[in-house]
Amino acid sequence: MFVTVGGDNTLRKFDIRDLTKSDILHDRDSEDPFVRVHWNGRNPHQIAMISLFSSKILVYDFRNTFGVLEELNYHSGRVNNIAWSPPSAYSQNLLCSIGQHWKALIWNMNQDYSEMKPQLEYKASEELVNVAWTDLHWIAIAYKRRLHMLQIS
Length: 153
Prior knowledge:
Blueprint: E1 2-5, E2 10-15, E3 18-27, E4 34-39, E5 46-51, E6 57-61, E7 68-72, E8 79-84, E9 94-99, E10 103-108, E11 120-123, E12 130-135, E13 138-142, E14 147-151
């Protein structure tokens, strides 16, 4: 199984055994198309999505028939990318988001969603364009011409 997002503002789930069919899990009317979707390796029911021009991160749970579980809205500019922490025995379920406003935010997704705020914040020297967890305690963040490694403890 895999999911996609696209310019038609849909979140689609495909079964690799029959790619001619898909289920539309989320659909919205908006001029702001979805551009990225990331599956949570620790929780197979959860994904996060971002839009092209939005400062929000949408967290979706497949078990929730009403669609979006939570909107994480703490970035002051456009969100450029997101990455989940790698699956392990580590007790926290973390999501890292980077944005146009030069910040990397780390969210503890084990918190109560009604009180959701970033657990950690890193201020960069310019706009961040990409992010990836390298292992449990290290995050790689990319600028236009540089790469920084952040240690999470």
